[in-house]
């Protein structure tokens, strides 16, 4: 009996990997964990930011985790916030992938998304959240962000924001 | 181990895990303000398809002030858990963890939110109706075993893990902020391959913990060390506290099954 229950739970857990279409139902996924930690070891997208001043454009720099404190193994509020921010960046990349798939149905597949102007893109909650992350990290009046996808031989800029204020 | 002892230790572990989670959120509460990154006026746009009653409730509970109240409530409930043998603190930890996860688009800290909810559910059920204690413990034990086993099987399917190239990739990810010395060590091919296979063997062998109480204790000791290393290398502190809180459920379930 208990083995059967465990097997049933295993099946439900394996099925939990499937995506849920509704964004508000997706918010309940903590109730149905998939337990697939680090199942794909790939370099993930990274958010880069730069200040844009009247005197010229600043250098691009990646957003990294805050320096680890000695107590970080037991209590890491800033580190966990950085992980939450990174999840937002990954979510935006995933959502843009879905948009590209949708747009390629009736448009020229070779044509890239008009990212800077497309209301579908800039209207995404993830896009707004990434903009807020970039603002929080630069602390500048005018700034710009981009998402860099690591690759071989060189990383590529996947998404470049306009200069934002 | 008896049911009541298992629940007592789970409640203590849950208290630590939930208190750490609440305190961490309170430290970075600025991110949840309307001017912060995780601002509710932005996040609420994703609830456009939800029923009106749910949206109205969410606006009240998940606003910045509401979220601060949730964090404080979770902290208070966590502190009460070891001292008050009443179901309310465990239900409150469950509800506040779920509410904060919902606010953060499903989870704030990945699987640790889910395991916190599972442990809270087990304690809450046991304290609400003693007749439900065994069901709660069995559910927590099953999820604990699955958390390792499913994760191990999923990794095993990826050639990057099997060839030992996974850890050098993961330790270079900037968002984990892996200490430089640990990153250099785990980037050595031989060590990376050995560590990867040790991890795969450990995770995939989770079901053997069900066989016998002694094996279970030894396996969980390795598990605790595994989480401690993860916390030190990748900064995954919440996974350490939350998984440790679930361990008594497995100890009880295995000892109960083998003695009956």
Main attributes of the structure:
heterodimer, A: alpha+beta, 2 domains, five-stranded antiparallel beta sheet, globular, B: 260 residues, mainly alpha, 13 helices
Structural overview:
The complex is a heterodimer of chains A (165) and B (260). By secondary structure, chain A is of the alpha+beta class. Chain A folds into 2 domains: 37 residues; 116 residues, no CATH class. Chain A is 38% helix and 15% strand. Chain A is built from 5 helices and 5 strands. In chain A, strand 4 and strand 5 form a beta hairpin. Chain A is globular. The mean pLDDT of chain A is 81. Chain B has one domain. Chain B is mainly alpha-helical and 260 residues long. Helices cover 74% and strands 0% of the residues of chain B. Classes of the chains: A alpha+beta (165), B mainly alpha (260). At the A-B interface, helix 1, helix 2, helix 3 and helix 5 of A face helix 1, helix 5, helix 6, helix 7 and helix 9 of B.
Instruction: Give the averaged pLDDT of chain B, no decimals.
Output: 95
Number of domains as seen in the coordinates of chain A: 2
| Shape category of chain A | globular
For the sheet with most strands of chain B, the description reads: none
Proportion of β residues of chain A? 5-15%
Radius of gyration of chain A: 19 Å
Order of helices and strands of chain B: HHHHHHHHHHHHH
What order do the helices and strands come in, and which of them pair?
The complex is a heterodimer of chains A (165) and B (260).
Chain A: H1 2-15, H2 23-26, E1 46-53, E2 56-57, E3 61-62, H3 77-103, H4 119-122, H5 125-138, E4 143-149, E5 156-160
Antiparallel strand pairs in A: 1-2, 1-3, 1-4, 4-5
Helix pairs in contact in A: 3-5
Chain B: H1 3-27, H2 40-43, H3 52-61, H4 64-80, H5 87-103, H6 111-128, H7 133-156, H8 159-162, H9 166-170, H10 180-186, H11 189-204, H12 213-234, H13 237-259
């Amino acid at each position: 009996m208990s083995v059967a229950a465990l097997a049933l739970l295993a099946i439900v857990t394996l099925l939990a990997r499937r995506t849920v279409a509704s964004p508000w139902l997706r918010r309940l996924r903590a109730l149905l964990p998939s337990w697939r930690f680090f199942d794909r070891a790939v370099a993930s997208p990274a958010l880069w930011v730069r200040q844009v001043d009247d005197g010229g454009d600043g250098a691009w720099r990646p957003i990294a985790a805050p320096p680890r404190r000695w107590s970080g193994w037991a209590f890491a509020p800033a580190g966990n916030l950085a992980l939450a921010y990174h999840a937002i960046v990954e979510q935006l990349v995933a959502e843009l992938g879905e948009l590209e798939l949708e747009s390629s149905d009736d448009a020229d597949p070779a044509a890239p998304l008009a990212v800077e102007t497309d209301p579908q893109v800039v209207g995404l909650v993830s896009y707004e959240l990434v903009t807020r992350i970039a603002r929080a990290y630069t602390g500048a009046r005018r700034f710009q962000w981009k998402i860099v996808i690591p690759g071989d031989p060189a990383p590529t800029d996947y998404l470049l924001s306009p200069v934002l204020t | 181990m008896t049911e009541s002892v298992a629940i007592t230790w789970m409640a203590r572990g849950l208290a630590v895990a939930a208190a750490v989670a609440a305190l961490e959120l309170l430290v970075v509460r600025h991110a949840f303000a309307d001017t912060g990154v995780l601002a509710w006026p932005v996040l609420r746009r994703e609830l456009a398809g939800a029923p009106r009653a749910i949206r109205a409730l969410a606006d009240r509970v998940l606003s910045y002030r509401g979220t601060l109240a949730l964090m404080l409530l979770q902290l208070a409930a966590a502190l009460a858990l070891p001292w008050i043998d009443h179901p309310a603190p465990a239900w409150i930890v469950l509800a506040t963890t779920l509410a904060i996860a919902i606010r953060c688009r499903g989870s704030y800290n990945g699987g640790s939110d889910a395991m916190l909810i599972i442990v809270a559910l087990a304690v809450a059920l046991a304290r609400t109706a003693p007749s439900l204690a065994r069901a709660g413990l069995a559910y927590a034990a099953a999820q604990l075993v699955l958390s390792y086993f499913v994760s191990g099987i999923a990794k095993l399917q990826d050639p990057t893990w099997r060839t030992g190239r996974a850890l050098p990739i993961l330790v270079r990810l900037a968002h984990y902020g892996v200490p430089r010395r640990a990153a250099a060590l785990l980037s050595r091919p031989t060590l990376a391959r050995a560590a990867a296979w040790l991890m795969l063997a450990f995770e995939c062998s989770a079901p053997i913990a069900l066989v016998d109480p002694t094996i279970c204790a030894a396996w969980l000791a390795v598990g605790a060390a595994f989480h401690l290393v993860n916390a030190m290398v990748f900064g995954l502190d919440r996974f350490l506290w939350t998984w440790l809180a679930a361990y008594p459920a497995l100890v009880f379930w295995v000892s109960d099954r083998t003695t009956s």
